[in-house]
Amino acid sequence: MQALSATTLNALEGVDVPRFDRSQVSVGIVHFGVGGFHRAHQAMYLDRLMNEGKALDWGICGVGVMPSDTRMRDVLAAQDGLYTLVQKHADGQYEARVIGSMVRYLYAPDDPEMVIETMAAESTRIVSLTVTEGGYNFHHVTGEFNLAHPDVMHDLAEGAVPVTVFGLVVEALSRRLSRGLPPFTVMSCDNIQGNGDVARAMFTAYAEHKAPDVAAWMKASVPFPNSMVDRITPVTTDQDRADVASRFGIEDGWPVVCEPFTQWVLEDHFSQGRPAFEDVGVQVVDDVMPYELMKLRLLNASHQALTYFGYLAGYRYAHEVCSDQLFNDFLLDYMTLEATPTLSPVPGVDLEAYRHTLIERFANPEIRDTLARLCAESSDRIPKWLLPVIREQLARGGDIKRSAAVVASWARYAEGQDEQGEPIEIVDRLKDDLMAMAADNRRHPTAFIENQDLFGDLASEPRFVEAYLSALSLLHTTGARATLEALR
Q1: Is the pLDDT score of 453 beyond 80?
Q2: Are 248 and 14 in contact (CB under 8 A)?
Q3: Residue 98 — pLDDT band, cuts 50, 70, 90?
Q4: DSSP label at 84?
Q5: Max CA pair span of the chain
Q6: Does pTM top 0.85 for this prediction?
Q7: Which of 41, 242, 243, 285 has the fewest Cβ atoms within 10 Å of its own Cβ atom?
């Protein structure tokens, strides 16, 4: 057994390790939000490039801003930024490699000045983000930046030391502007439609209130490329740590597990160059929108379609749900009849094959992606991934009964008890509000969808309300499986 660190790399057996000299890697990217997805995706692509002898000036400096990031700080410090990435194949085969592209990690509350100066350094040319859907601080219906958030209000105060990603990034850009340095690119890698456009709007909205001159410069000079990112990366468990130890002889405090599939489609809009991502499988394009909508409305919304129904019916893992033909039929019908009609042609993609590939990915028993993870933070996900499908289908006169049923399954799930009478732990920033609304489902069936902050004016759309109420009634009287049977 080897505790993972730079000094033990050469002693590891049965696992690929960085073939490049990490002492020669310099920071070119500062990344906010070092979770499992970033480490299984962007950091992995950079590691591939570095193993080809390229991009050694594009090393990653990870940054954490949340209290929960202290554990990542401590693990990566002990392991010299190294971690094990394990791909789990459906046939039980595991492939592991140690990723070495992250050469530094900073926890912003420890030293915000160091974080700002690292971004302000001329060598930093990209600041990237995986801060989750909720990290962009915008209103789900209006799309406006939330200036009333307590941390934002703190950062906007005169002379405040920044605590938010907005405050830190804008302060770094302010210093670059005053020093005559070109701006870095801000590259979002989050599951949001038009993620770069959203990032541009939110960061410039903050800057307009903090430093108008910087805001003007950002609008004129800072690129915010859109991207589509895809790789199922479940939460790391103690069993995953034990598996890495037993299979590969590595003691890793925070390995990452993922599926074999990975995709990254990235717009080629950068101010100070970029790594040669296309050399390691990234699709670099002029317009990412068709790929982005495909992924958000087929993969991400389908995750929501399976998760509440599956949980209510007694399943706890995505692969269990996708071993049930009733659920598979429902997912494919949603994707084919409701989501796909809202998509434009996607260059180079066979959408029928893509839909079936998604079911195969969800059904991978080795990933053990929990429904609890997929059910979490629904108030950040449903409005961005599923409701646009409903609105577009309403406008075109298309079918919405399955999409409306997914919303109903969320409302039923938010009641906090499954069909076996077992309690459900709701994980959502709006937990209290959601559960209060859902508690009124039987007496006042439209209570849940009358929340305009989440649903806008959908409660005034007769076709949607009718489909929603029909599904919610069936969920209450006959359960999840019978509801899906009725939707065939």
Answers
A1: yes
A2: yes
A3: very high
A4: E
A5: 67
A6: yes
A7: 242
DSSP 164-223: SHHHHHHHHHHHHHHHTPPPPEEEE-SSSTTHHHHHHHHHHHHHHHH-HHHHHHHHHH--
What's the pLDDT score for residue 191?
87
410: CB partners within 8 A, 6+ apart: 304, 308, 378, 382, 448
* Cα within 13 Å of Cα(390), Cβ side: 27
Cα atoms found within 13 Å of the Cα of residue 235, Cβ hemisphere only: 9
Residues 6+ apart with CB under 8 A from 435: 414, 415, 416, 426
The length of the chain in residues reads 488
The CATH H-level (homologous superfamily) assignment of domain 289-486 is: N-(1-d-carboxylethyl)-l-norvaline Dehydrogenase; domain 2 (1.10.1040.10)
Provide DSSP, 273-287: ----GGGGT-EEES-
The domains of the chain are located at: 2-285, 289-486
Per CATH, the number for 2-285 is 3.40.50.720
Phi, psi angles (nearest 5°) of residue 95:
-120, 130
Helix or strand holding residue 63 (H, E): strand 59-64
